[in-house]
Design brief:
homodimer; 369 residues; alpha+beta; Creatine Amidinohydrolase, Chain A, domain 1; Creatine Amidinohydrolase; six-stranded mixed β-sheet; five-stranded antiparallel β-sheet; 9 helices; 17 strands; elongated; Creatinase/aminopeptidase-like (chains A, B); M24 family metallopeptidase (chains A, B); Pept_M24 (chains A, B)
């Protein structure tokens, strides 16, 4: 399991390069930034200050002080910017302080009024985009659990039977919500958290928040993005159809599968990330779907401690070894519904590699564990 | 289920009162702010602008545009502050724009360079602190699911037997991690998400992230804070001991139970929130525990879409009807371990009321559903 703080050396290098005094970030309890920078799930809002090669954390007096190795943790009830300035002042009375450009405005103003000049840095974002072996292993572990979650859905669908044009499982009609709960129970037993990210949607009648009864012939998309014990996210989506009639949904599924294959050809170190995204969309559309109306615009992007992080699959970023990327091919149609395939790949020395080995089949009875 | 946008009228009132042009907030995908302001789980970062009584949302072109009733949703790839300024400019070329004081610094700077003066408002934070009936019902539903999750742990512990001074369940030693997974599976089947907030810790040997084998006589704390289908969080923690010897842990448990009762006496509308927090700590300490070293400093605070939100149980905030508050009594000792009881109560017209009805007993075999 990835442990210990990360990003410190990247921050120190940025401080050196910019002749800055230090670095300040606000880690909110629900933002994985704190986990990345300290190696711990802090569970509370903390002020993070890096100065002279050391990490200082400040928490309010209303929480229990977390134990964080390799960091000085103290209580300070002043506003975050003032608490940070007090630490910086031990080393330099003024100078440039680096911070993410999204640092809260009030924190920035407090630092400025304490005499520091603020300058934005992408050092942490850039460091997070390149995963080490421990991090890749952690994400691969989550992907294996994600596969078992999706497998639970496939087993239920394979086990369901048709009565009066609806799917029945056990003694009751099968709904998206019943499947969602079973998928989440499987994820829990596998030791990963569903974090509200599991969705089961169907055809044109289903929503993210609604329980919809399932019918044969309509595509059912099962999507999970669980968080593993070390905080890293996975992402896996598969589409199933019970009693497919072989029409639109098969063609859409072939297109998504082809787009998935394209990601495994194109996502190489040195490739332009925006080009990879365009290629995924273009391949999906090549099977006769409208690029504007039917093919998803969200073809994925970096994944790690956050479900969405750098690199984005647009713009002119260059993919590098260690990037871990969610790749997503999806097609929606007002009458026929939606088909989606989502996976996670790592940009490796020898090209891209899918993490986990989930099959892609549309028929749940042929899904193999 | 709570649905539809909230906070719009509070924002409009603040805009009127401050003679401002509009209100801007950045809703990140992992922050429940967007869910509150739009009534939807957006799943992506959005720029929220309220102007002339209407809601405008801006998303980047790399995501699928979410459907949000009662809001104009458009794609805009400019930085958030520029996208917001473009909407504001349709109504006023300059003037005061309200924003939460934690708005990202770069967004604030972009708004300022577009000609607007930024002024902070607590309108949304204050509105979120007062829950309506739908919201209270949602939290109560999550608390019922939380109780079933804790019940799963009690059932396992009541079913475990002692072999060679360790607890055994089924064919294998019982660890904190085995219980955690079963608790999370129960939460999943109940339709709520564990969101990484379930912890099972024991004695002096367990950590948040480690699997520790359980032994008789040592207190085991099971803590959950699940998220329900409408996004609202619950919070429930109970302490169990198998084969208690009746010493430290019983005294600590009586103290926590008494402190819990104090919250039900003191958390009335009009009471000082900081005083309620102090009383919880004082009552815990009254059973012979050290206020500085043993009694927790985290005695709770507001809960809703976020696990921690207003009101805090410190400072001189006044509790008002509709506040929903996590109350927590906990005692730690270097040799004896930790005991904790956490619940959620609502400040009602007729005084505080616990949400859910989880018993507090220390003996898992006497835990009643």
């Amino acid at each position: 399991m990835p442990s210990g703080p990360r990003g410190g050396s990247a921050i120190d290098a940025a401080i050196d390069e910019r002749t800055a005094v230090g670095f300040v970030a606000i880690c909110r309890a629900d933002d994985p930034l704190g986990r990345y920078l300290t190696g711990r799930d802090l569970g509370v809002d903390v002020v993070y200050v890096r100065v002279a090669g050391e990490t200082h954390l400040r928490v309010p007096s209303t929480v229990d002080v977390p134990e964080v190795p390799n960091a000085s943790v103290r209580v300070d009830d002043r506003p975050a910017g003032q608490a940070a300035a007090a630490i910086l002042a031990d080393h330099a009375p003024d100078g440039t302080v680096l911070a993410p450009r999204t640092i809260p405005h009030d924190t920035a103003l407090h630092l400025e009024s304490a005499g520091y000049e603020l300058s934005s840095t992408t050092a942490v974002r850039d460091a997070r985009a390149i995963k080490d072996t421990e991090e890749i292993d952690a994400i691969e572990g989550v992907q294996r659990a994600a596969k078992r979650g999706i497998t639970a859905a496939a087993v239920i669908l394979a086990d369901a039977h048709v009565e009066d044009e609806t799917l029945v499982w056990g003694d009751a009609p099968l709904s998206t919500e019943r499947i969602r709960r079973q998928v989440n129970a499987t994820l829990a037993v596998e030791g990963v958290d569903s974090v509200g990210a599991t969705t089961v949607t169907t055809g044109t009648r289903g929503g993210r928040d609604a329980a919809v009864e399932l019918v044969p012939g309509e595509p059912i998309v099962v999507s999970v993005s669980p968080r593993g014990p070390a905080g890293y996210r996975g992402a896996l989506a598969r589409t199933f159809v019970v009693d497919a009639d072989g029409g639109w949904e098969r063609r859409a599924h072939v297109a998504c599968d082809a787009a998935r294959d394209v990601s495994l050809v194109e996502a190489n170190a040195g490739a332009d990330a925006g080009f990879v995204g365009s290629e995924i969309r273009a391949e999906t559309a090549a099977f006769g779907f409208s690029m504007n109306d039917e093919v998803t615009r969200d073809v994925g992007g970096g994944i790690g401690l956050a479900a969405r992080e750098a690199p984005q699959l647009d713009g002119d970023t260059e993919l590098v070894e260690g990037n871990v990327v969610r790749v997503r091919a999806a097609i929606s149609h007002a009458d026929n519904g939606r088909v989606e395939l989502t996976d996670v790949l790592v940009v490796g020395e020898d090209g891209p590699r899918m993490l986990g080995d989930a099959p892609t089949g549309l028929d749940p009875s042929r899904w193999s564990e």
